[in-house]
Amino acid sequence: MAAIIQDAIMLFGDSITQAGWTDGGVGARLANVYSRKFDVLNRGLAGYNTEWAIPVLEQCLANQQDQPHAAKIRILVIWFGANDATISSSPQHVPLPKFIENTKRLVNLVQSPESPYYSPSTRVILITPPPLNSHQRPARDPPVADRTFEITKEYAEGVKEAAAATKVSVVDVWTAIWKAAGENEASMSAYLSDGLHLKPEGYAVVYKTLMKTIKEEHADLHYENLGSVFPSWNLVDRADPGPSVQRIEI
């Protein structure tokens, strides 16, 4: 039985998404501003690439279809690339052309009328991986040279290519953090904890860039333009509260 009564924003990605519930994380920020409007579902999968993500998203979408009265995913945010962009000897590596095709397939699971999971009411937003700070990566224990600045940029461009091909919104986190750091790789330590994962300051850039995209391209789903699912307390009929606190479609 479906227990969720609010529609949702679903974050689907790797460890950078998974950590979105941490203090200052993008998931926590979204949950705060969308309180009483949309639930925020975090489906971050640490270590996953797009190849492994496809069957997971299929399961998530199939499960939703099996519950006809379940809440709808109104915004699906897809955020992969950091693991796909590992060096070719890594088990996480996905070649760039395949990564782009996988990203388009993730979008089309929801967007294509030919998909068994087609959901015309769901808006899809892609996020690029953040830039990599190679100066920080060797400081890990043990040191791991598993990614490069240049290759990660190529995968960020691949996300933008997939977004253009599928006609969905894209949030260019790579460029946003690069510019915030003054286009200086070493300075990105202010936004990245280990050269890859985000500090609260990095998530702040992601949140700001994501909300700008929602406001400009999906204004009807921006939190400022949504009412609450349930009415304000001062509208409750104290004599007979039941009928006055019914769910409101937003």
UniProtKB/TrEMBL annotation:
Domain SGNH hydrolase-type esterase span(s) in chain numbering: 11-205
Keywords, comma-separated and alphabetical: Hydrolase
Gene Ontology process terms (BP): lipid metabolic process
Organism: Mycena rosella (Pink bonnet)
Coiled coil feature spans: none
Source species, domain of life: Eukaryota
Signal peptide start-end: none
SUPFAM superfamilies according to UniProt: SGNH hydrolase
UniProt protein name: SGNH hydrolase-type esterase domain-containing protein
Molecular function, one GO term: lipase activity
